[in-house]
From TrEMBL:
Classification lineage: Bacteria, Pseudomonadati, Pseudomonadota, Alphaproteobacteria, Maricaulales
Record-linked SUPFAM superfamilies: NagB/RpiA/CoA transferase-like (SSF100950)
All residue ranges annotated as the Acetyl-CoA hydrolase/transferase C-terminal domain in the record: 345-508
Species of origin: Glycocaulis albus
Record-given protein name: Acetyl-CoA hydrolase/transferase C-terminal domain-containing protein
UniProt cross-references to InterPro entries, sorted A to Z: AcetylCoA_hyd_C, AcetylCoA_hyd_C_sf, ActCoA_hydro, NagB/RpiA_transferase-like
């Protein structure tokens, strides 16, 4: 800390990596010094600040607090995040982020004011132009003077050399590393010399932040199954994070390992086999896929370790051309099967990465996000490597012109950030044979009401209409590329929930995009959760489609409780819905003995007082409503 102040003075622009790779101890030291000295002007420029999940109420705390203690014991919380959460940052400290924890800071004034909208590939430039003069990153210790940027080479591989060049020209800058022996050592591009850093702080070995896995609902499984028909053997795969991306990875694994069960599942949900034949496939993966994804997820790693992400590419243009001409010429010791920019996820992801064999580790290249998310600077090589690319990402909503709304609400509040979604959508239009696939749940629960995510108008657009491509809901696939506005409206109506199709069509007609007499075919009028549930029931009951295809950090009882509390949370907004919820709990909640294990885990077997008795009734009601998948 003293060295940094000596080098750069009291105006500090501290760059911290996105997500996992923040040097928490060093960041806390800078923040503590700034709080104690108002003459220090501290700007923290980062993205995706990770915080322990906070219970929204006392009932949720009964579940969450023990889980938090189990998962985050030994994790050093970021003090600036804690103060920002309370809107208590000192006047001399600002925190600028280009990606926020999804939905976590919607009502936080400081975070909303200091959000920076930037494509992931442009974020490093934004940080450099903001005058960053201190970089602090968690790194994995190695041997013989080597370190690994591990989880976050994404921006650092470009920013640190740029800062070193600035320093040669006389600009003050300091680069700090925080050693954490728990961090997996990743080689290839992430393997760097120690002398990139001016100072290293050895933090020993401390807990890596674990991002809890979401349950894959029946609707999510249907979306993943539809999307899995669009992936071509011998192609390229990119996915994001969350339950929908888990569903895609799990569906691809099912397609490869149990092709008969996969065919049955895509058949009952009415997957478009003509589209699959043209753009994807229905067979097992013999050539395999090449992974090129800004985020290395547990789902992608699982596909890699199970022989699905196995198409290896060369980073030499001539050699890559030769491999395309003769794939059998690939040597056992060459090639990369997965390029990634960063990783963050559940504890199992970190465990698996630490346990990789030497040959497996050599086939994963954690590298610059500019290398993964774009074509510029390496276009010839990227075009040769990214054969039949499928860039699969998630949106909150899709509007009637096919534009994706993924990060910002209509009132301007930021839910998350652009990340790489725009880059991948644009790249899909630039690469021969590539497609952008936007996944969106057909509906959402807001304040106890079901609302459509296929909307005529909505929030800020993340991917504009001129980059519209493929949209997938649980009800099917809409191929929008090259379509007229009329045909786009019809295609989206066909994959919307049937409860909202007429409203959507009427708005399209009012806007002049659809003739007044148009009616939707009856075959598209059966889009209901019940139909999807019924179609996939056999696969669910048979254990083919499970809620946590890549495991869970929670016990089965905790999983059931989590779903129940989420159900309550969706119906506890506004006094009317709250009153209705309480009335239902008092009048219709089933007997407590049906949920003995869950109530014991929540310490509500013998409630004390009116408040706990009501909590017990609410919990029993929610457990009864979430006892089956939906």
């Amino acid at each position: 800390m003293d060295l940094a102040l000596e080098r750069v003075g009291k105006r500090i622009v501290l760059g911290l990596p996105l997500g996992l790779g923040k040097a928490n101890h060093i960041a806390n030291a800078f923040y503590a010094r700034a709080k104690a000295d108002p003459e220090i002007e501290l700007t923290i420029f980062t993205a995706l600040t990770l915080e322990r999940p906070a219970a929204p109420n006392a009932l949720a705390a009964r579940l969450l607090d023990p889980i938090s203690e189990r998962l985050y014991d030994g994790y050093p919380d970021l003090e600036y995040a804690r103060d920002r959460r309370r809107n208590a940052l000192p006047a001399n400290v600002r925190v600028k982020e280009f990606f926020l924890p999804p939905g976590g800071l919607l009502s936080n004034a400081s975070a909303q004011r200091d959000y920076v909208s930037a494509n992931y590939t442009h974020a490093g430039r934004a940080i450099l132009e903001a005058g960053v003069n201190v970089v602090a990153q968690m790194v994995a210790p190695g041997r013989d003077g080597r370190l690994s940027l591990s989880c976050n080479p994404d921006l650092s591989l470009d920013m640190i050399p740029a800062l070193l060049e600035r320093r040669k020209a006389g600009a003050p800058a300091i680069i700090l590393g925080e050693l954490n022996a728990a961090l997996p050592f990743m080689g290839q591009g992430a393997d760097i010399p120690e002398d990139w850093f001016d100072a290293l702080y050895d933090a020993g070995k401390y807990t890596l932040f674990s991002i809890p896995r979401e349950a894959v609902s029946t609707a999510a499984w249907a979306i993943g199954l539809h999307a899995s028909t669009l992936v071509r053997d011998g192609g390229t795969l990119q996915t994001g994070i969350g339950a929908l991306s888990d569903a895609v990875a799990a569906a691809l694994k099912l397609r490869h390992e149990n092709n008969g069960a996969w065919r049955d599942a895509v058949g009952v949900i009415g997957a478009d086999m003509q589209l699959a034949e043209r753009w994807g496939g229905v067979e097992r993966f013999t050539q395999g896929l090449y992974g090129c994804s800004e985020m290395l997820t547990l789902g992608l790693l699982d596909l890699f370790q199970n022989g699905i992400l196995k198409r290896r590419v060369s980073d030499d243009v001539d050699r890559q051309r030769a491999l395309l001409a003769d794939p059998d010429s690939l040597r056992e010791d060459e090639g990369i099967a997965l390029h990634g920019g960063f990783f963050a996820g559940p504890g199992e992801l970190y465990d698996r990465l630490r346990q990789l064999s030497a040959p497996e580790r050599a086939r994963i290249d954690m590298t610059s996000v500019a290398r993964v998310n774009d074509l510029y600077g390496h276009e010839e090589l990227a075009r040769l490597q990214r054969q039949h690319a499928r860039f699969i990402n998630t949106a909150m909503m899709v509007n009637g012109r096919g534009a994706a709304i993924s990060d910002t609400l209509a009132d301007g509040r930021v839910v998350s950030g652009v990340g790489g979604q725009y880059n991948f959508s644009a790249m899909a239009h630039e690469l021969e044979g590539a497609r952008s696939v936007i996944l969106v749940r057909a509906t959402r629960q807001t304040g106890g009401e079901t609302r459509s995510n296929i909307v005529w108008t909505g929030g800020e657009v993340t991917v504009p209409r001129h980059l519209r491509d493929i949209v997938v809901t649980e009800y099917g696939v809409a191929d929008l590329r090259g379509a007229t506005d009329r045909d786009v409206a019809i295609a989206l109506a066909k994959i919307a929930d049937s409860r909202f199709q007429d409203t959507f069509l009427n708005e399209a007609k009012a806007a002049g995009k659809l003739e007044a007499g148009y009616t939707l075919p009856e075959t598209a009028r059966q889009n209901t959760p019940e139909r999807v549930q019924e179609g996939l029931e056999a696969a669910i009951n048979g254990g083919v489609l499970v809620k946590f295809p890549f495991g869970s950090d929670l016990t089965a009882t905790e999983q059931a409780l989590r779903e129940a509390l989420e159900w309550l949370g969706q119906r506890n907004s506004g006094w009317k819905s709250r009153a209705g919820l309480i009335a239902s709990a008092l009048l219709r909640a089933p007997a407590a003995h049906r949920f003995a294990a869950e109530l014991e885990r929540m310490k509500l077997t013998q409630p004390a007082g009116v408040k706990e008795r009501l909590e017990q009734r609410l919990l029993c009601l929610a457990l009864s409503r979430t006892g089956t998948r939906g």
